[in-house]
Specification:
Residues 7-450 form the Major facilitator superfamily (MFS) profile domain. The chain is mainly alpha-helical and 464 residues long. It has two domains: 1-184, MFS general substrate transporter like domains (Growth Hormone, Chain: A, Up-down Bundle), CATH 1.20.1250.20; 230-332 and 354-463, MFS general substrate transporter like domains (Growth Hormone, Chain: A, Up-down Bundle), CATH 1.20.1250. Helices cover 78% and strands 0% of the residues. The protein has 20 helices and no strands. The protein has helices at residues 6-38, 48-75, 78-84, 86-97, 102-130, 133-160, 163-170, 172-181, 188-193, 197-208, 214-224, 238-256, 259-272, 278-303, 305-330, 353-374, 379-387, 393-422, 424-445, 454-463. α1 (6-38) packs parallel to α6 (133-160). It is globular. The chain starts with 5 loop residues before the first helix and ends with a helix. The relative contact order is 0.14.
Length: 464
Amino acid sequence: LRAQNKKLYLAAFAAVLGPLSFGFVLGYSSPVIPELRKINDPKLRLDSGQASWFGVVVTLGAAAGGILGGYIVDKVGRKLSLMLCSIPYVFGYIVIISAQNVWMLYFGRVLTGLATGITSLVAPVYISEVSHPKVRGMLGSCVQLMVVTGILGAYVAGITLKWRWLAVLCSFPPCIMLLFMSFMPETPRFLLNQGKRSEAVAAVCFLRGPHADHAWECRQIEASVQEEGLNLSEFKNPSVYRPLLIGVALMFFQQVTGINAVMFYAETIFEDANFKDSRMASVVVGSIQVCFTALAAVIIDKTGRKVLLYVSGIIMALSTVLFGLYFKIVLPDQNNSSNPDGWLTLNSASPGTESSVSWLAVVSVGLFVAGFALGWGPVPWLVISEIFPLKAKGVSSGACVLTNWIMAFLITKEFNDFMGFLTSYGTFWLFSAFCCLSVIFTAFYVPETKGQTLEQIEAYFRTS
């Protein structure tokens, strides 16, 4: 590491402990649901409907967190917002650890979901505003890298830890984030927007080292900072509404390409392919995500954002076509009136067919997860942290995060109904069509932000 970047990397590391906490929240349900469905205590035992809600209620909390995060990120700042979100994380896990009934489990999950929504908004903003253009892509991609690392960590720990002890483990990352962030600076852009120039210069000095031109960087930021507040009439301005529409569309496409559906079905796929331990299958999928997200973080500042979105979208489109083909072979007589739960019990259809083509499903899962991790996983979060003007960052980021988590809820909760209405193969071919649309949208509407300062990106939307 170059000397002048060391403290910048330290600040980014402190911030991405938030996304690591977020990953543990998302990964917690996978090993815990099977355990809670078999638990002896009838007050805590989950039936199939309750198990579904235990997994998905986090997305509702996160949607609320997106709205709250959009408000507090502009009111109290990026640093303090990250520190404050550690409170619902820890309190949520305390509720889960002390749970005496299912409703306490739900309440704990909603609280951790609320913290997740705030984190998913604030961490990318903090990192983009403290970074310089040469490393902003890499550090911004570390947000998604830490999310998938947290998911994998929960999967691995869940193999040996009971659900209460797993909750104890999951509460450590937000506590460490609170400690580390207390020593980090607020972002210079926020400080200058608040008129705190001397503090902003000190923050730049911390982040860039003593030999950087602090005054020049502050002047560049000040030239684009507009101190007046945001009012509704300004959403008629293309420099405000265009990046907002791009950000909302990126969040929409990230979910409708089918990532939650594929991850939801992955364990069943691996079981059909004779993987006896479905928990180990989750670890395999999680490991693929971590490896390819890390690859994206390494290459994103060289390849650019759009290239990764193209490659990712094409890989996901091909893999969902293969997924649909797998279902067409395994369930050839399925029609729209078929049992919507039939896809969960493949062994009842076409005896012997599944084992002969199970490799196709396993390849589809691996290919899809790798493709998503390479582009549509990390890049949308990075781009929305870069493209919004400073005065609209809180509101616009909140709208994007809200869109993401509402779509995640709808896709996860209604996936079974889709399978019944459109057939299994039809559902995955629909996901493939959305993957193709995401590539077309990227080509025509997403700007390339590689190597540009946040001020240059703002200027692009003002002048184009």
